[in-house]
Write a structure and sequence with these properties.
142 residues, mainly alpha, elongated
Length: 142
């Protein structure tokens, strides 16, 4: 031992058992902090799951309420969908597109070829000024 260490150990008395519990070691502090973070993260995760379930329930309720009204408006002759300049066939395609149908399902439903359904879908997208089916569905649903 060097002289400086010897002098330091004689000048600083060792901590008694009571003082050791008041001054935890860094590893003990890390374990305590880690446990607190785990408890906190579990609580936040449980709260998040609950909020997510509520959000899903509200979304389902709103979708169930809005879609029939929207679809009724799409088939209405004087409905707002005429403002886009849709033909009768494009109104039918837009109605099915708003339901999330694919071109093949639209073709089957309307008794036309998939190529023709794709053409009508492209015309609907162009007339409402969007670039994707997802944007179209969002716009058509309100």
């Amino acid at each position: 031992m060097t002289d400086a260490r010897i002098r330091a150990t004689h000048l600083i008395p060792p901590l008694s058992g009571e003082m050791r519990t008041l001054a935890p070691r860094p590893a003990q502090r890390a374990v305590t902090a880690s446990a607190a973070l785990r408890r906190s993260s579990r609580q936040l995760l449980a709260e998040l799951r609950g909020n997510l379930e509520q959000l899903r329930a509200h979304h389902a309720l709103l979708s169930a309420m809005r879609l029939p009204v929207l679809l009724a408006g799409l088939s209405d002759e004087g409905g707002p969908w005429r403002a886009y300049g849709f033909t009768d066939r494009e109104v039918e395609v837009a109605r099915l597109l708003a339901q999330g149908r694919r071109n093949s399902a639209i073709a089957t439903e309307l008794g036309i070829s998939p190529h023709t359904a794709r053409h009508h879908t492209q015309r609907v997208l162009a007339k409402i000024g969007v670039h994707s089916r997802a944007e179209a569905v969002a716009r058509l649903r309100g």
